[in-house]
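Box 3.1 A note on notation
Throughout this textbook, protein chains are presented in two layers. The first layer is the amino acid sequence; the second is a token string describing backbone geometry. Keep the layers aligned when reading.
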Amino acid sequence: MTIFSRVTMTFLLAAACGSVMAQTDSAYKLRHGDALMVSVWRDDALRMQVRVLPDGSITFPLAGRVEVVGLSTPEVEARVAEKLKKYIPVPVVTVAITATDGNQVYVLGKVVRPGAVTLTSPETTVLQMLSQAGGLDRFADGNSIRVLRSTPQGNRILPVRYDDLVKGNQLDTNVVLMPGDTILVP
């Protein structure tokens, strides 16, 4: 590859990354537990499935440890490429999300199917999640449901008045869920 073609390729990649980076404001941000396929163009040895570790990083050959939590896939591609430049002159890195396991809510207590449920939308509410868990069982206390949420300011308890919600009352208790929330159904 000539110096001219390397410079041209670098310029084109930078232009493409700049336009992609401008679009990443609403892009999915990686979380702990998410799975990724990371590959380098024209190098089959540098293609592997990785999982975001509890410390917020991934490990990739030649690049080593790369912090990725809170980043979009184009941002991760740029970080990995930057670390690979020591070994590959113009690395073209592709990152694809293969599983969003870090995007879970936990439903506990008197529901038909308790357990972890993956959020499929950033607007998922408690009622929608309880529906995905099969609904309440017949002994559940619908107006005593709580959502436990960890925030940087500490833990919060959000009341949910299910019985009132299904009657069209107390609509403000239909909380929009966040990854890591726990729904307790007594």
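The longest strand covers residues 43-51. The chain has a mean pLDDT of 88.
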